[in-house]
Amino acid sequence: MSRFAMMATMVLGLALGVAGSAQADTKQVFDFYCAQCHGEKGDGKGVNVTKDFATDPRNFTNKADMEKRSDEDIRGVIKDGGPSISKSPLMPPWGATLSAADVDGLLAYIRKMCDCKGK
């Protein structure tokens, strides 16, 4: 295998590993896809949120609020976006981008942030 082919294979492998494969670290997935709006700490204070933002992103650290959400609701929002549960269309659908394992990992990560279980 040529040096170029080996490098191309390594770059492709790294790209696939970070872009949402089942082996991707959940925190990396959260930081890449979610933290811009929901914040690195999950508090809804991401770098993309300005005073002109049409809605406040969900604060995953709000235990009382997050306990009202079922696991299926959260999975649905991650996969199908906010409108799937009559919430903001600013929450994009990630179902075509993330694997089922990534969605399940994000659900567990969010539940850890709120230290709660769903209804």
Portion of residues in helices? 40-55%
* Main beta-sheet annotation: none
How does CATH name the architecture? Orthogonal Bundle
Order of helices and strands: HHHHHH
Poorly predicted spans: 1-23
Shape: globular
Strand content: under 5%
Describe it.
The chain has 119 residues and is mostly helical. The chain has one domain (3-114): Cytochrome c-like domain (Cytochrome Bc1 Complex, Chain D, domain 2, Orthogonal Bundle). 48% of the residues lie in helices and 0% in strands. The protein is built from six helices and no strands. Helix 2 (26-33) packs across helix 6 (100-114) and helix 5 (71-80) crosses helix 6 (100-114). The longest helix is centred in the first third of the chain and has 16 residues, at 3-18. Mean pLDDT is 85; it is low at 1-23.
List the main descriptive attributes of the protein structure presented here.
6 helices; mainly alpha; single chain; Cytochrome Bc1 Complex, Chain D, domain 2; 119 residues
Topology:
Elements: H1 3-18, H2 26-33, H3 35-38, H4 63-66, H5 71-80, H6 100-114
Please give a quick description of this structure.
Helices cover 48% and strands 0% of the residues. It has 119 residues and is mainly α. It has one domain: Cytochrome c-like domain (Cytochrome Bc1 Complex, Chain D, domain 2, Orthogonal Bundle), CATH 1.10.760.
